[in-house]
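Your task
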Amino acid sequence: MKTWIRDRGLLLTNIALFLIFFGGMVISGAAAYSEDQQAHGQPAVSLVEFLTTGAFVEATFENWESEFLQMGMYVVLTAYLFQKGSSESKPVDKPAPQDQDPRTASIGQNTPWPVRRGGWALKIYEHSLSALFFILFVGSFVAHALGGARLYSEEQLAHGQPAATVWDYLGTSQFWFESFQNWQSEFLAVAVIVGASVFLREIRSAESKPVAQPHRETGA
């Protein structure tokens, strides 16, 4: 059991942190939403009721959408673009293992099934990582639009204005402001780690070059 946990520690720790922070978001979000409701003469909501509100859905998927967009684009961009000296880039002047054509690879018992199968299965599999992120992005984008439209309509009605449809909401500056404010921050963070990892190090981290490796050498 100890070995099993050690071998999956990075994933398990990130899942645990997600659950902790997600729980904190729900609790604090429900409290903030209830305070706003009471300020407008409406009853407070429970945690379960808060999970069904447009405020919760919009806030959650607005953030998830930007994360999945960032990771999907990063997977694709790092397949074709380089940054000399960065630990986040493939080598500039020599082939990388990721560039190997799986059709020429040696097939063994532990080779992934799509590689052994070939054809359409392999074609899908060799782009499956980016596909997953873009599917999650589209799903989160839709959920953001649905939850945001509901919240936007509530605010409109509170000010004596007509409710808005999802299509109406997609055409508002509010929706695109919510999206762009998150998207820009994600790509800023990517740019910082790509550039900073040329000159800065973190010993033992897979995201860093070896501490003694020269700046000009691109990390594998």
